[in-house]
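Re-running the complex after MR caught last week's input typo. The corrected sequence lines follow. Everything else is unchanged.
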Amino acid sequence: MPLLHRIVRKDHQAVAFTLDGKPCAGREGDTLLTAILAQAEALRLSEFSGEPRAGFCQMGACQDCWVALESGERLRACSTALVAGMRIVTSRRRAA
Amino acid sequence: MSRHLDIDVAIIGGGLVGSSAALALRGIGFSVALLDKGYCGAQASGVNYGGVRRQGRPVEQLALSQRAHAVWPRLQALIGIDGEFLRSGHLKLARNETDMAALETYAGETAGHGLDLELIGHNGLRERFGWIGEGVVGASFCPGDGHANPRLVSTGFAAAARRAGVQVLENTPVRGVTRNGEGFALEAGEGLSLGARFVINSAGAWAGPFAESFGEAVPLARIYPSMVVTEPVEPVMSVNIGMEGGGIYARQVERGNCVVGGERALPLDDPDFSRPRGEGALSIMNRAAELFPGLRHGQAIRFWSGTEGAMPDRNPVIGPSLTTPGLFHAFGFTGAGFQIAPGVGEVLAELVRDGTTTTPIESFSIGRFGKLPSARIHQGSAAGQNQEPQQTGETRP
Amino acid sequence: MSERPTSERPQPLIVGAGPAGVRAAQALVAAGLRPLVVDEAPACGGQIYRQRLVPDGRSNKALYGSEAAKAEALHRDFAALTGRIDYWPQALLWNLRDGRADVMVDGQSRQVAYDGLVLATGAIDRTLPIPGWTLPGVFTLGGAQIALKSQGCAIGNKVVFLGSGPLLYLVAWQYLKAGVAVAAVLDGAPFKAKLNLLRGLPLAPAIVLRGLRMTAELKLAGVALHYGVSHARILGAERVEGLAWGEAGRERRLACDGLGYGLALRPETQLADLAGCRFRFDARDRAFLPERDNAGRSTVQGVYLAGDGAGIAGADAAERAGERAALALLEDRGLPHDAARARVLEADLARIGRFRDVLEAAFPFPAQWMKDVADETLLCRCEEVSAGEVRRAIAGFGVHELNRLKAVSRIGMGRCQGRVCGAASAELLAHEAGRGIAAVGRLRSQAPVKPIPLALALDAHREAAE
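Corrected-run output:
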């Protein structure tokens, strides 16, 4: 079950993205963190223990919410706006 | 509050050199006080790149370096931790044919010293080290070299020394040392006086005044390394990387972080403190992303610098005082002290016990600087690039 | 969007476009200066008045509650500065040195010379590690609030709020008002500590009464309120599933699928550190804070500190401190400045400061935490260092200073550079080493203050002043 539940923007413009290869849609106005956690239960697996992480502070301070694109580019999910076509990866232990 | 301590050996400077000497001396039965103006291992010993390498050192350092080479795999037994030492091998890159020729010359000059250097051409690099990008024509590989964690190793030696019964006195700056009969009298910290038969001056960038107070002023300067570390990334770098002519050095630790250096930092208003320049750090970061394409998406998470003592000929000062029996110097490692320090510690212990050492150290005599009219302490080199070395050999590990 | 400064000489630089930064900018502009305002967010407001990325149909009242008018005024007043300031949103100032700032903006790094620096860097939640705090679905109180306010999301269907501080009740109430099921509010402070709030009535009656009303509404809505909560443990395998705790000698348990956790706030002081400001231990905030005078001057000439980034005092104080710091900058330059206004601002700030003392008494720091924390609990989230590993490092290396602890245990070496674990590490170190909390020191800040890409290129354009 997803971690985040929308209260508003449920009918905003859908924004297509890919999450670990799977086609998903967020809503206009989403950060990556919102878009991902409205679908899934984790943003990444921690490097050392492999335990799931899904952010903490939502304000760009704790650095817990880094995700990667399939290209390898790193993005901080809570402070990055969702853009259509993003191909996001969450399941690698260490983003290469 | 005044306190007095009588010991066999007083060691001024609790970095890796001082701490390993303290441990070695304690092991052969001497009573030792190890004094540091701050925390042991907080200076050059703790902030350096972490390269544990013999390759690239001038020939005169190799015997000492080989002696240290034998200590690194024994760290767990010696100090209780392995200091994250990895015998990864050291790969020194050549950017052009001139640099490659320099590597070849060095390999020739040092054959028989136990480095077992292997020269690798462009094709060999592509096959075995495909993670290195373009712009490299060849390299020299030293399989027995590697890297370790300076923060753990230097602190670990001091902690082991303490457990062995060394009086480790941190935050206790030595304020003065004077001859006292056949021995020495030291004033340190707040109201602490010491009487010692022997003194070791391993005070790093701060060793100059102690040498001068015994009539042995030296041209000791300060250099400030500029280090960058990345977040943990996927395994990319299988060896410790250096480059002929300096320019960049990089290693990846087991946890995945990559440590990169190659620039000089600058001191702050207080010359005991320094920080990398923003442009310098970016320059090194960009170079790393280019040279190691696997890192191109990685992020830097921290920079640091520190104060290292440097001698103009890039060799340290190691050996007995030429003016004062019982005083020994070991400082000025010019950014290349980490690997060699455990060997220097053993040498210092021999010097104290026997007056001589089995390892050749004549090249490092304090006498090579002649008699200077006064201490000329230079405040570090100009900002920007590493100095080009006059001979084969990196400016720092 | 990101304009290069057009002034010929270095400008005043304001870091942060929250309440403090906005008011500082406004005051400097009113005096005829043209500051450069640098902020990480895409729009002004900081955290408390954080704006949505797109309109979502909710009113400002729904978002900002009783403070809606202040939020609107702040946003409006900043917008009115367009054309008279240089403004770089989505810009990260990652290094400060010798009167120059390194700023990452538009995918490049620019070095900016400045003349006068106002640090309005705000704060983040303060937390102490508890078992399970890294589980998905656990957010800070601020994080839970941002999810709701800025993204219009609830962090769960059945949410528990845990910790202490006024934010605990505010966020719980906001969730209630948004129609989310709030299972419980668990306050680590004993109920009787709340009685201290009565002392706050003469100082800030509106705030106290609002707090009482919120608490009453929570209670009336059936939200369980627990006080004196201890030994909290977050339960769950892959995500938060519940909470266990001790209360009045009994073990309690509750199921939930979202949890907001926080114990007051802690200032973001990394840039003040890089700027060379002297720090002093503040007993009320239980943290090292950069020293500042009543006007906001730091110990470094030309560097001013305003808002929660220098000491927690809330948004109203931040607006006043930002304006006051700007006046100090003007005064220090020998420019005309409104001294009478400065005195009014300082009087306001002093009154708010007295109220903060009351709040601290009502929500005391959980001093027993460091004795309770189990070895297996993760202390440093980034590096995954457990409390037990930290204890072993302290003993093994004979450590009693925080930067040494970092060097030998890795706490604070991760991406967040100790923002989250620094306070807890200091508490644990002080306890294990038998020293006072101030005696173990603070983590030294190092650039870059947040992660920056290895491939970040330095912008070749050079300022006229360089």
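None of the earlier attempt is carried over here. Chain B has two domains: 3-47+151-220+312-395, 86-146+222-309. Residues 122 and 137 of chain B are 5 Å apart (CA to CA).
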